[in-house]
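User:
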Amino acid sequence: MYKGLINKYGKIEYVPSFDQVNSDSILFVAQDKNEERLKAALDAAEEAFSIEDINLKNSEYHKDKTAYYTYMYFTQPSLPSMKSVFYVGKGKGSRWIDHIKSQLKKNDLIIPNKKELLIDDWIKNNFKKNLVPSQNILKKAENFLVRKIGQWSDKHSEVKSFTMEYVLIAGRIGVFELANETGGNSTIDSLKLLVLPANLDMNIIGNKKLWNKAVKEFEKNNHTYLEPALYFCSAKKIVDEITEKLLKLSLLPYPISNGRNEITHMPSNCAVDGAGDQSLYFRTKNELPFCVQLLLSKKEEGVRINLRPLHRTLRDFKSFEIFLNQVFIDQKNLNSYYKEKFQIRNKGSDAFFKPFARDSKGHYDPVFPIDDTEISVQSNWLPSHHKLNLSSALKYLINYFN
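Assistant: Predicted structure:
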């Protein structure tokens, strides 16, 4: 297995083992059975770490249907910067503008996520949507709203676009700062990648130990269980921002005992649950028989909302179930808002209920942006196509589930 890294100065090093290197000086590690492919990945990672705002303004590439590229969408297209990126992707052909094509075809009433909302806002602010031909909108968007920031046409072009996308999402901007559908993929064939998460404060001893452990486990291909903890620790500022917001709504941090093995230095209401869900727990001041679980989403910038029993015991589940069956909203029992009885998932000690998901099903579960941007919510007990932000959604929850 061939191994290489990007050091804290942004330079490539090839090493026989990561054990011989001080992890404090490592930004990125990669290993592969294919030496040539490893080199291609390291070259792309080095390029990703070197990107500055001035590169974004002047970033244009010739059209090549066979080439792979990495691209970015910007909230401030006229002044593109790493701070104004809201989406990073990779692909070939017309992939970079497919997101805009999709939005031009969609129903205006339903804007379920922040990526679509930002694209829709840009279209509305610059064009009369139904009067301007789609091709004109797409032409204006190219090299403005969306820009290619790397393009390759050699035999390892897909690996390069893949690596740059991963480094930009996870290592430069942050998995919770974007509206991406994934947190960046880190494996392609036998090529494995691991990047120091953006915003991970290495002055905190717990973070430093966690990164050191991840690098050592990476060499043994046994690191993936640590990635959710690394990303969660990198989101400490977001955790603090959410906590401050919820305290104003009289929701108190609720200490949790499970899922804290690797994050004991994080606040006591933080946990990495199940298959890697980064969760924050809160409870009401009047001690209702549930806690609010906010799940940070790597698929889109924001959080999903669950209700859970206070403790993961059968006794608390029963109290939780009885409570939900006694909830009345506008003089109607909660059950009456659903075609079938509302669904409590994982009935038993690991139960949860999705209050804002249509039919309480996970694939209809909205992601509420942390910055309180409003999104369309289609919960059964709210008016159709109701628009809410995180704060207003939680206010509804506190007022009605009481």
